[in-house]
Structures are given as C-alpha cells and as structure tokens.
Amino acid sequence: MNAGEKNFHADRRAFIIMPDTGLTVAPVGFSGGHTELLVKLHYPRLRYAMDNFPRGYFMNDELCIYTGHDMTPGAVWEIKEKDMDVVKKAIPDFRRVFSVNDATPVYLGVRVGEIGQIWEKIRRTTIKMLEKGNIVM
C-alpha cells in the first residue's frame, strides 16, 4: 500500500454492510482497506464479501457505497438493485454512527482509478432519497 492510499484509508471511516449482521464500521484511524477489515474480523469468505456485500466509506460529510472488486482502471463499482434492501436497512445506523441527515450526499458507486488517488464518485443522491427508495437503478 503506497502512502497516498494509506492516508486516504486513515482519513475515511470504512464500513461493510453484512446482510446477516448489518453495518460494521472500521475504528477511527484504521489505515487498512476493506479486505484488511474483513481479516481483522476473521471473516472467512473474503472474495465473496468483496464481490457481494455493500461497502464504502464516510469522509468529508459524504457517504460512498458500492460493491465490486475489479481493479481495472475505469471499471465501475456500484450498488445494484439487489443490494438496495440491505443498504436501506443500514440507514438508521448511518444516521447514528456518522450523524448524517436527510441532505447528506450519498454516492452509490465509484469509478476505479489509480491506486493512491481518490476515485471518482458516481450516482449522487441523498439519505432522504435513498430512504424513500427514489433511486433510478
């Protein structure tokens, strides 16, 4: 992990939404990625979780949520319709843990970029619109 990637990881609050147990949030200052968080939690099916569990981060008063694992630059990691129920169930936890409000920006995907750079966030909405289900998939 290069310095830029490590700094980004330490500045954000990473999370994973596990369908059976809900929102799992990395400790403040955790400088690892989602795979390292899953290892720390002793989760046995890393690749499955990375491909299928919604995950993301909270940073600068914005939520970014996605699924995917293809590291090819330009690839899109995004929330799919099948993920929406799990994401919506996590909204009360997002409100409690990150103190988000109805107007908090939420991005439902990212475009993979260079390692160490902040990747382009895509599919902007708000907590309120997400909660209501007014999302075009």
Question: In a few lines, what is going on in this structure?
Answer:
This protein is of the alpha+beta class.
* Inertia-based shape: globular
Structural class: alpha+beta
Task: Please tell me how large the radius of gyration is.
Answer: 14 Å
Beta-sheet strand percentage?
Answer: 25-35%
- H and E string: HEEHHEEEHHEEH
How many helices does DSSP assign?
Answer: 6
- Give the helix proportion (percent range): 25-40%
Contiguous runs where pLDDT drops below 50 for at least 5 residues: none
**How far apart are the first and last residues' alpha carbons, in Å?**
33 Å
How is the main sheet built? 7 strands, mixed
- Total strands: 7
Summarize model confidence as the mean pLDDT: 89
Number of domains: 1
